Structures are given as C-alpha cells and as structure tokens.
Amino acid sequence: MGRWCGVRRRTGAGGARPPAPGRPAGASAVRPWATAAVRLAAVTVLLATAASLPGGTALAAGAAGAAGAAGAAGAAGGAEGYAFADGAARVEGASDTAGAALLQPGATYRSSLARNDTLYYRLELDADSDTYVSVTAVPGSEGEVTAVDGVRVSVRDADGASCSLGSATFGAAHSPRPVTAWGMREIEPRASRCQDAGTYYVAVERVRPQDSPPDDWDLELTTAAEPRPRQAGPTEPPGTWDSASPEPLAGQPERRAGGSGFARATAVGQGVWQSDIRPGQTLYYKVPVDWGRQVYASAELGGSDDASGYATGALRLGLHNPVRGEVDDAAKGYTGRPAAVGLAALPPVAYPNRYASSRQVGALRFAGDYYLVVHLAAQVADDFGDGPFGLTLRVRLRGTAEAGPEYAGEPRPKGVFELSAADRAVAPENGATRDGDDAMRAVAVGGIGTGSLLLAGLAVWTVTARRRA
Questions:
Q1: Half-sphere exposure (CA, 13 Å, Cβ side) for 450?
Q2: Which end of the chain has fewer CB atoms surrounding its CB within 10 Å, N or C?
Q3: CA 92 to CA 113: how far, in whole Å?
C-alpha cells in the first residue's frame, strides 16, 4: 500500500401467439426478464467502458452519486431523507456486553437506537492497528429535538475502561438532522490502557434521553482499521503551519447537487459549486485531500423574498475526515438576507497530527476523502417558506502533496487513507483550479456525460433486443 500519504400480433385460439417466422413452434417469445437482463448487461458494459477512460472511475462514481442525489431531492433531513450505504448489514445492538454482535473492521452496518437504550457492539482487535468507529444517528424529521441532545459513542476494553468518548449534538437550531460521532482505539507510544489485543466494546446511546424524541433513531455504523507505519516517525504534532484564512475562492459557480448521505456524497474538488437546499435537508460532498494539503470551505445561502424573521443557527457547515470523524463545524443564523458561514483555518493533513491536543488538529490525521456536510434548519420554513434556497459552496485546497506513511499492513477498507489517480485529477496540486484541467472538467460533467452515454447505449441495446425478438 501506500505512501504517506406498437404493432399488435394476432393471437390464435386460447390467446396463444403463432410462432414468428423462422422460429419453431412452441418456442416462447422473449420474456420481459430477458429484456431487463440485456439492459442490465448494457449498463455493466457501459460503466466498464466509462471506467476505462481517463478519469473514468470518477465519471462512473459521479453518475452513481448524481443518481442517488436525484432520488433524494427535496427530502428532509430525517430518516426518510438520509441515504444509507447500499449493502450495509443489519445488526442488532445488545443491552449488555455479553450479547454484543461483532463489527468487522472495514464494514458498514445498520441498526436502530431507542430513546432509553445503551447498545453494545463488539470488536476483536490486534495490538498493532488503530481502529475507528463512526455512528451516524438519523432521527425522524417530525420529532422535536433539543440543542444538547444527540448521539454518544464510547469504545471500552473488556474491563469496561474507556478508550475514547465522542458525541455529536443537534445544536442551537433545534433541527432534526443526521449527527455523527466517532470513537477509536489507538496504539500510542506512552499509553498504558487499551493497548492489548483482545475484545473491545462500542457503546452507543443518546446524549439526553430524558429530553429526546420517543421514536427510534436509525443508525449507520462504520469501522476502519489503520495499520502502524513500517518505520516509526515523529510523535509530536507539526509545530507551525500557515493559519491565515485565504481569500474566498472566486469564479463562475458550477452546478453540482449534493448527495443525501456519506455513501452518496457528491465528489468535488477545488472550485465554486452551486445547488439548491430546502429547510430540513442535509447535503453531502466529498473532497479528496492528500497528505500535506490544507482544505478550506465556506457555504453561502441565497436571500429570500418572503416575510422577515430570524432562524438561529440556520445554515450549518461541517467537515468530517475519511472515517467520518468530525473535524470542524460552524453555523450562522438567517434573516432572509444572504448569509455565509466558513470553517476555521486548518493545518495540513499529516500523520503526526494525531498527537496534538486540539481535537480539530487530531482529526486531520490521514489522507483520503473528506466530507463537507451542509444542513439548512427545518425552522427556516416557518418564516421564509419551503424554498428551495440557493446554496453556493466554495472549496479551496492549498499546499503540495507529500509522502505519507508506508503502512505495515493493508488498511480496511482498502484505500480509505489514500488518493487514487482519479482523486488527484479532482484535486490538482499547488492551488490550481479546474480551469484548463481536462481531467477535472471530465469529472465535473461526469454525472451528465456518463448518464447520456448510458441512455444512448441502452437505446441501442433495446432496439437490438426488439429486433431479435
């Protein structure tokens, strides 16, 4: 692995069709499932063809992401609006550690959390890898939530000692939305607890169950394992870095609808991206960030022609790392006038960041896909209508990619802490914009271009199948 890194046929008696010319009597007509199979084959072939083109992987992914986003357009931020990962295994949390189900590193799961439950899941860990668990809690869109309620995640050893504790809350807007907390078991040079191989447990609960809505919350759980480096490196965080916030990125906005979940996040690189968002909706974008690079982002909400008013913390922007751990977030109220919110200036991605005392710096510990999560509070609709509202996302990447650690094993899921060639096309080095970059332009139109290719191919295959029939 890596471096640091209509003609209707007449029928005979009984409704049976006469055999077609050249077909022996008794041969059946082409069944609907056969046509479907042909179409499915067409999709497979065309996606494979798209993937073989320069930037093709990103093209295919862009098409899939665009389809997912379109399917969730206009959905609220509750359970019906969040796109869970395809193929996620269903797992039931146990009421105590004795019955805890096993979570495999690199896998994604679905579960649910009742108001007063504390659920347990089991991990079997070695003594060499750092392990990360993220839990996204998705409340229903109708329930009332409090600012301090949310989800809490802890990782514990077999004796019940805490390895880590993390939480995520809904915030001042009191708006139901997906919230994500993460926990970890780290191998640390000077640590004495949670360092051995063996059984560990993940505990998941609500932060304020006494004030929480009565309905169950859907959960999406992910796990990841990061092997140790082959060679020991610095155990101190970088001392200095450029902490000046850059000027907001200018340029003509490009239309790019956000995804409806982490698994459906829309890929973007440096640039100005535009979408629509409705009250209660949460949009997801992913930005490939290499070792040594800094990411900056801001979100802008367009003005409203409706009645005046004020919505507290209405526009929320968050940044999550490749294992979905939150790095930073910011929120801004809304008065009907254009509003903007930006993330704090953050250091470059570096392996030694994990040794920093700052939570924000510590979360910037590996390269990979970082996620920008934008939420518009449901309460905005009370004073300003159901929208949609114009949303502009500005993303800037700064710095030159560096070598990352050479891991002693394979991370799980594979490739989670590295960038592919298609990723690097999305995120050109040295602050270059996508203007003049052919690969970037291909990725930018991937959702449209690949979709057009698929439609054209399906038309050809359908005509061929009908002629053969």
A1: 31
A2: C
A3: 9
